[in-house]
Amino acid sequence: MPAFEYAPAPESRAIVDIRTSYGLFINGAFVEASDGNVRKTVNPATEEVLAEVAEAGEADVDAAVAAARAAYDEVWGPMRGADRAKYLYRIARLIQERSRELAVLESIDNGKPIRESRDVDLPLVAAHFFYYAGWADKLRHAGFGPDPRPIGVAGQVIPWNFPLLMLAWKIAPALAAGNTVVLKPAETTPLTALAFAEICQQADLPPGVVNIITGGGEAGRMLVEHPGVDKVAFTGSTEVGRAIAKSVAGSAKRVTLELGGKAANIVFDDAPVDQAVEGIVNGIFFNQGHVCCAGSRLLVQESVAEVVLESLKRRMAQLRVGDPLDKNTDIGAINSGAQLERIRELSAAGESEGAERWSPPCELPDRGFWFAPTLFTGVSQAHRIAREEIFGPVLSVLTFRTPGEAVEKANNTPYGLSAGVWTEKGSRILAIADQLRAGVVWANTFNKFDPTSPFGGYKESGYGREGGRHGLEAYLAH
Ligand code: NDP
To answer: Looking at residue 177, what is its pLDDT?
Structure first.
């Protein structure tokens, strides 16, 4: 069969207007950092500097928390739920109106393919605001007591893998429940959070209800440790999550942590192979594998391993790696040089520990941060690539013979965020899902998200739930 060539189909970036510099969003206005520090954010696909962004210092964190406190006491806390809902609906509609612009901006700053930012991230961001807007005047019916109250000021720290979506997961339920927020985006992906700050202005959200402070890990640390913060919400690495849990221990602060994962995607011998292969690909190569719930360990029943792997390799050879703004692209850029280094280091460890590495022939661009889709076979449970979160487009394949062995291997991880089960038998899905220590178990699908559905982990994947009715609990005192 002749190779099918795609013509380039680049999305125009003319729709975004990136300023040369951005301030901090405090009390409804953009302000410079008090000590004048800035850091640069780059396009990971080209290494082009996109903008200079203010670096929050201690005085700025103080100012943001004070603004959030005043807004909570004077405006947002006392406001009727139905009125808070109006603002949230307005924000949701503005996100929809500006979704193409936001999707392009996200792809430029993060490196993810436009197909994903346009078709997954942005629709989910708007859906979260719509969903939680609906709860704002119905909190008494959420199942958390007759008179649930907001907690106060929420300090929220988010990572770089789904910048705007993680912002939505944090801000929408917090505001719906009547809290005010100070949010710190990741240092490599601040731009969509700053665009969201403009949306708050457009929506006439009262000043101080949402504050966005940019900066590095130190700004995040100052925010979560600030005595004026009543509730901490963090998504990121288990290491930083552990440090946060220690720092708030003994205080009255409420905490939710959404940390790493090393999910098993289990394929039984009766699974439809083509469908399972699509699910495996979606499980690990979606968003370059920068997904906490990625199906990074494939557990395939030994009797079908050969046929599944053959089909998987054929499918991987079709994946198009390259320009994130090209609508044909399946795998975009790795978010940063540091993350690329980590993926390379763990992949090298896989080889040196004896696993067999395979990637399809794949031309990578000269500039920017890139990693070809990679598969490791002959992986044992002791290998680092089977135990540690790689957070990149790298799949570790293990086999099993019996359902019991599959469950044992799937649960043999310090994490417990998600898992996948592929089988044609409904009874087997229920029996296996019941035994998996994972917050989310997908059956014959993977990486499906919905604002109505709770998400969160067991063990070192963190605690608390985000999304759905359950996600309100973290923001209500009851
Ligand atoms: P981090 O956990 O360091 O970063 C997540 C967020 O926390 C960022 O906004 C970061 O700021 C901030 N932060 C860093 N240090 C502190 C601190 N002491 N107190 C408060 N906030 C802090 O993740 P990395 O970006 O370093 O990624 C490292 C690894 O973490 C990845 O390889 C991956 O395995 C995992 N990870 C998991 C994620 C998940 O969704 N579960 C998401 C991201 C990463 P800044 O970025 O500005 O330094």
So the answer is: 98
* Mean pLDDT value of segment 29-39: 96
Question: Considering only CA atoms, which of 372, 366, 391 is closest in space to residue 289?
Answer: 391
- In 3D space, the residue among 465, 448, 440 whose CA is nearest the CA of residue 173 turns out to be 465
Helix, strand, or coil here: 165? helix
DSSP 117: I
Q: Catalytic: which of 292, 293, 388, 473?
A: 292
| Residues facing 457 on adjacent strands | none
> Could you give the residue ranges of the DSSP H alpha helices within 353-435?
384-387, 403-411, 426-435
443 bridge partner residues: 421
Closest ligand 1 atom, residue 336 Cα: 25
Confidence class for position 2, pLDDT limits 50, 70, 90: low
pLDDT at 4 over 80: no
Q: Mark whether 116 is an active-site residue.
A: no
- pLDDT of 3 > 70? The answer is no
Atom 8 of ligand 1, residue of closest alpha carbon: 186
Q: Give 354: exposed, middle or buried? Use CB within 10 Å, 0-12, 13-18, 19+.
A: exposed
Q: How confident is the model at residue 1 (pLDDT cuts 50, 70, 90)?
A: low
Look up residue 428 and give its two tokens: 């087997």
Contact indicator for 374, 347 with CB cutoff of 8 Å? yes
- What is the mean pLDDT of the segment spanning 260-281? 98
**Token pair in block for residue 411:** 């649960």
Mean predicted confidence (pLDDT) in 205-217 = 98
Q: What is the pLDDT of residues 324-375, one digit of tens each?
A: 999 999 999 999 999 999 999 999 999 999 999 999 999 999 999 999 999 9
Three-state SS across 228-288? CCCEEEEECCHHHHHHHHHHHCCCCCEEEEECCCCCEEEECCCCCHHHHHHHHHHHHHHHH
Of the candidates 177, 171, 174, 178, which has an alpha carbon nearest to the alpha carbon of residue 75?
Answer: 178
For residue 340, CA distances in Å to 69, 166, 329, 354 come to 39, 22, 19, 22
> What's the CA dihedral at 190, 21, 51, 328 to 10 degrees?
70
What token pair was written down for 43?
């396009």
pTM comes to 0.97
- Distance between CA 88 and CA 95 in Å, rounded? 11
| CA 478/CA 68 separation, integer angstroms | 21
Does ligand 1 have an atom closer than 6 angstroms to the CB of 225? no
Q: Strand, helix or coil at 429?
A: helix
CA pair distance 243, 439, nearest whole angstrom: 22
Residue type, 290: H
CB-ligand 1 contact for 389 (6 Å cutoff): yes
